[in-house]
Design brief:
The chain is of the alpha/beta class. The protein is about 40% helix and about 20% strand. A 6-stranded mixed beta sheet has the order 2-4-1-5-6-7, sandwiched between helices.
């Protein structure tokens, strides 16, 4: 699963990306288009449940869930009409599953704001409007072709025309598509268009070094907006996080304590991004490895097994499931079995976040 990091120029996107991925994406604060092609990186999703499992099951290796991040160059007003580097960047956003918008919530005379003054809500509005305009253009272009096909009597094309009209009417009220309720067939009909405002969004308030808890009025505005639109929200000081990320693991705890943080804000960001995508983890645990597997909420046993290998889904027989609480209570999988706490679940079982599973299959 991929999340694209977007924002206006000079809001700290590349600094944040570097800290998250420990990479070296170009980050020149006063050059808005320093990120030309999207940088990509893989970030682990911190999960203390992995450590708790390994207290009782000692593996050769531990593999956390991961998230692919794409650092997309700064969008400017008019991008949908080709301003800045325009549709080149918008096309990159089409490829991701969710949007992480970095919003500048700090004042700094040395870092020029593209609009001349720091106004996080205005920044959010610019990005949202450009994405909506791009979606309208995509749908309008698709409409003519769908209407021609629909005139031949094609039922799928007729439904597509109806969905496109519904989406366009919604966008004309200047509200993003993620707030439009569509059923499963309707969503499938427009899936190939990669509509930008249909993607889940999360706001990252990038704060100053003296506001790590995000107590400024600027942050309050972003948080209020995120709550209003039911979006994810985290506070991060990209500059501090970049410094922490560059330290040796043993030195990070010392710096965190020095600045008053319990954990890197990036850990919170990764978990929130994971949740924004509607994802959760189940675990497999044995001597070879303890591993977190990423699934969508609501996956059944066969679907969850298919994440490991398609044969597991195709030949699914049953799942043997226990919880971390069971493991911490009984200390071993053998004891869990002996105490009757190992559940046997069939094809209709909905895998729960944190389940520890064994899958039995036959192909």
């Amino acid at each position: 699963m991929e999340a694209g990091i977007v924002g206006l120029p000079n809001v700290g996107k590349s600094t944040l990306f570097n800290a998250l991925t420990l990479s070296k994406a170009a980050a020149s604060e006063n050059y808005p288009f320093c990120t030309i092609e999207p940088n990509e990186g893989i970030v682990s999703v911190p999960d203390d449940r992995l450590d708790r499992i390994t207290n009782y099951i000692t593996p050769q290796k531990v593999i956390p869930a991961t998230l692919k991040l794409v650092d997309i160059a700064g969008i400017v007003k008019g991008a949908s009409e080709g301003e800045g580097l325009g549709n080149k960047f918008l096309s990159h956003i089409r490829q991701v599953d969710a949007i992480l918008q970095v919003v500048r919530c700090f004042e700094d005379e040395d870092v020029i704001h593209v609009s001349g003054n720091v106004d996080p809500l205005a920044d959010i509005e610019i990005i949202e409007m450009e994405l909506m305009l791009a979606d309208m253009e995509t749908l309008e272009n698709a409409s003519a072709k769908a209407e021609r096909t629909a005139r031949s009597g094609d039922k799928e094309a007729k439904m597509l025309v109806t969905v496109i009209e519904k989406c366009l009417a919604h966008l004309q009220t200047e509200v993003p598509l993620r707030s439009l309720s569509l059923n499963e067939p309707e969503l499938l009909a427009i899936k190939s268009y990669g509509l930008l405002t249909a993607k889940p969004i999360m706001y990252v308030a990038n704060v100053a070094e003296d506001d790590l808890e995000g107590n400024s009025p600027l942050v309050a505005k972003v948080k209020e907006h995120a709550e209003k639109v039911n979006a994810g929200f985290v506070v991060v000081c990209a500059k501090i996080e970049a410094e922490i990320a560059e330290l040796e693991p043993g030195d990070r705890a010392e710096m965190l304590e020095a600045v008053g943080l319990k954990e890197p804000a990036l850990s919170v960001l990764a978990r929130t991004a994971y949740a924004t995508l509607g994802l959760e983890s189940y675990f497999t645990a044995g001597e070879k490895e303890v591993r977190a597997w990423t699934i969508h909420k609501g996956f059944t046993g066969p679907q969850a097994a298919g994440v490991i290998h398609t044969d597991f889904e195709r030949g699914f027989i049953r799942a043997e499931v226990y919880t971390l609480d069971d493991l911490e209570t009984f200390k071993s999988e053998v004891a869990i079995r002996q105490n009757g706490k190992l559940r046997v679940e069939g094809k209709n079982y909905v895998v729960q976040d944190g389940d520890i599973c064994h899958f039995l299959f036959n192909v």
